[in-house]
Amino acid sequence: MDVSASGAKLRIPAPLAVGATVKIEAEELLLFGTIIRCEKSEGAYYAGIALSRSLEMLTELGKLNECLLKESAAPVEANVRA
Predict the structure, then answer these.
(1) Which domain holds residue 23?
(2) What does pTM read for this prediction?
(3) How many whole angstroms from its chain centre is CA 11?
(4) 3-class SS letters over the chain
(5) Has residue 81 been placed in a domain?
(6) Any domain includes 27
(7) How many distinct structural domains can be found in the chain?
(8) Is residue 61 included in any domain, yes or no?
């Protein structure tokens, strides 16, 4: 898989329709995009994908989310003066 900021190229076993939206999950990476090209070559297909969104470092994002959820669940102390 070749990935840049704006696109990706994947080797896939079967063709995908141009215009189809895709979600690609790989280790530490989540990509969303649209198929812009799909060509047969060397017994497989190569899909060109225009990326609309990408998320990287998913493990770190998960840890941050877990910390934020713990913080929001913790009781809040209030200083009230009468």
Answers:
(1) 2-73
(2) 0.64
(3) 18
(4) CEECCCEEEEEECCCCCCCCEEEEEECCEEEEEEEEEEEEECCEEEEEEEEEEEEECHHHHHHHHHHHHHHHHCCCCCCCCC
(5) no
(6) yes
(7) 1
(8) yes
The order of strands in the sheet holding 7-12 is 2-3, 7-12, 44-56, 29-41, 21-26
Q: b/e per residue, 10-44, with b = 16+ CB within 10 A?
A: beeeeeeeeeeebebeeeeeebebebeebeeeeee
Tens of pLDDT, residues 5-37: 889 999 999 999 999 999 988 877 888 899 999
Query: What tens digit of pLDDT does each residue of 47-66 get?
Result: 999 998 766 666 677 777 78
Is residue 82 situated within a structural domain? no
